[in-house]
Amino acid sequence: MVSIETIGTVLRSSEAWLARRGVDQPRVDAGQLLAAALGMERLQLYLQTDRPLNETELAKFRPLLAARGQRQPMAQILEKKGFWTLDFKVNQHVLTPRADTETLVEWALELQLPTRASVIDLCTGSACIVAALASERPEWQFAATEISPQAFQLAKSNLSELGYIDRVQLSQGDLFTHLEGPYDLVVANPPYIDPSEAETLDPEVSKYEPKIALFAEEQGLEVIRRIAAESPAKSSAGAWLLMEHGHRQGAAVRDLLERSGYQEVSTRKDLGHRERVTGGRRP
Prior knowledge:
- The protein is α/β, with parallel strands linked by helices.
- The protein has two domains: 7-70; 85-281, 3-Layer(aba) Sandwich (Rossmann fold).
- It has twelve helices and nine strands.
- It has helices at 7-20, 26-38, 42-47, 55-69, 74-78, 102-110, 128-136, 149-162, 203-206, 211-214, 222-230, 250-259, and strands at 81-83, 86-88, 118-122, 141-146, 168-172, 183-188, 235-244, 263-269, 275-281.
- The strands form two sheets. It has a seven-stranded mixed beta sheet, with helices on both faces. It has a two-stranded antiparallel ribbon with strand order 1-2.
- A hairpin with a 2-residue loop joins strand 1 and strand 2.
């Protein structure tokens, strides 16, 4: 007798296969991948577990499952990731947007800035931060920079698709290169992992995410140090600087901001209650 693969049997076997390969959420991931292959919502899978799958459907699913088994991030496989209230295209050239970065967005939206505040997002990557802010503050004026040519192109594509490209002055370059300001708010999620920690990272990060977006010298503080030093000259009086950083770097980043003349320096914690974003105000 020929066995018939159904949604239910494929989900169970795929979950077990992913679990053996060390995937953190094998049931969730198997469901999302099968739903993507079938062009349906994940909830629909569990309402029709007895439905047979034909060879065409299985052929669409198998490469997705294989990629996850190799620990490729789900966002890269599905080529999208939700952040704030928006969906962003994602690939191997940009850091996958993470929920912890919303801590920075929330803080930025709480600030009492001028009505037509000028805001710059450094190391923009997928453009998730600047797009999230643009979605909430239509009166603000934005700029964003990205050093990676490939990431720059994806940021441009995301901003175009979301309808914000005309509101963001997007530049390819290193930090403030070619931009004069002054800005009322500088935000950044720069590379901040010490290269010596590379082997401690999950394969999803170490094997697949761009090293230029992950690692920085000087114990991960090289780019953060530069931003803290360069921002005052590009900022208006009373402007704010907010930067994401590693959960053990809060004290060092606070010190860097204070040495650069920032006041009201403090650190906010992420969803896991770890120090994640440090900010300060220019006198």
